[in-house]
């Protein structure tokens, strides 16, 4: 029976108020479908547009990396401070409490270990399992200039097609071989290829010269990769510069979990990424938190 609850006069139709049409502000993501946007908004804070992802997927090719030997002890306590976790499905199922409700960026490529040619990767996860695990994104390595460049690019396009079917974004990680030059020219090429062929966001390395040209020529968000452990001030400075030069976040591993105080470090990184704290202030914050912990 139509509209018997109250009379038309009592209902609120706001006939003179045009419906709001909010813009989805994440870079290059405005034309994506609802599910994609929902998942991306779990990773990138809708307030700041930025993210601090904690990368702990190293074991997929190098086994129990320093700091990741017992992830139940070293990593689970860090989960509340990260915006998203990047890891493998094995660690997700075996060690991450499902009620931590953290957005997951699931490592979805693999194959070779550190003993072999790393670019010889294949897709290592079925999209159905990504859905089953309720992940917010899937990730893989793309080896531009590597021996198996084409295979890794095709892995990505296949994963993008699968992700698009179910509304799951893909993060491409621009891998760098030991002998390859890490400069803005290379990263412009690698990031742009990933975005052109469908990646929804790209993880890449910071370079001191010309990083802004890397972010500005990539039409989707870039998150900065951490790399090997460096000093806290140096790592905070790198994150600060990356954000100021157009990155939408960071995806850091060793510089957080190998730090003397990983909780203090992830909090300091987060302040840099979300609050534009300068590296010097962020280091002060790190040292304060570290000394408070010692006194406890
Ligand atoms: C990079 O190639 C992989 O995704 C790594 O396993 C990891 O994400 C690297 O993190 P970080 O260099 O910050 O330790």
TrEMBL record:
NCBIfam families: PRK08227.1. It comes from the Bacteria. InterPro entries: Aldolase_TIM, DeoC/FbaB/LacD_aldolase, DeoC/FbaB_aldolase, FbaB-like. GO terms for molecular function: fructose-bisphosphate aldolase activity. The lineage of its organism: Bacteria, Candidatus Desantisiibacteriota. Gene3D superfamilies: Aldolase class I. Transmembrane segments: none annotated. This is 3-hydroxy-5-phosphonooxypentane-2,4-dione thiolase. Pfam families: DeoC.
């Amino acid at each position: 029976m139509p509209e018997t609850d109250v009379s038309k006069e009592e209902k609120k139709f706001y006939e003179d108020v045009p419906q709001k049409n909010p813009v989805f502000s994440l870079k290059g993501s405005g034309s994506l479908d609802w599910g994609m946007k929902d998942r991306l908004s779990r990773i990138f804070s809708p307030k700041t547009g930025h993210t601090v992802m904690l990368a702990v997927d190293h074991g997929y090719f190098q086994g129990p990396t320093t700091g990741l030997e017992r992830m139940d002890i070293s990593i689970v306590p860090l989960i509340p401070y990260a915006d998203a976790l990047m890891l493998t499905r094995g660690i997700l199922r075996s060690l991450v409490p499902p009620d931590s409700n953290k957005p997951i960026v699931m490592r979805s490529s693999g194959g070779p270990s550190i003993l072999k040619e790393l670019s010889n990767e294949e897709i290592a996860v079925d999209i159905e399992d990504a859905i089953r695990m309720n992940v917010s994104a899937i990730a893989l390595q793309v080896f531009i200039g590597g021996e198996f460049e084409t295979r890794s690019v095709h892995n990505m396009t296949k994963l993008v097609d699968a992700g698009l079917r179910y509304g799951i974004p893909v993060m491409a990680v621009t891998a760098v071989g030991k002998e390859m030059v890490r400069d803005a020219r290379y990263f412009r090429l690698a990031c742009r290829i990933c975005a052109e062929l469908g990646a929804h966001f790209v993880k890449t390395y910071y370079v001191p010269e010309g990083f802004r040209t890397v972010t500005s020529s990539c039409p989707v968000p870039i998150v900065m990769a951490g790399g090997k452990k460096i000093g806290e001030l140096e790592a905070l400075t790198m994150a600060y510069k990356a954000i100021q030069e157009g990155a939408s976040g960071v995806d850091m591993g060793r510089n957080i979990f190998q730090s003397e105080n990983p909780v203090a470090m992830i909090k300091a990184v987060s302040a840099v990424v979300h609050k534009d704290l300068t590296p010097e202030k962020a280091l002060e914050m790190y040292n304060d938190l570290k000394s408070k912990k010692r006194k406890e």
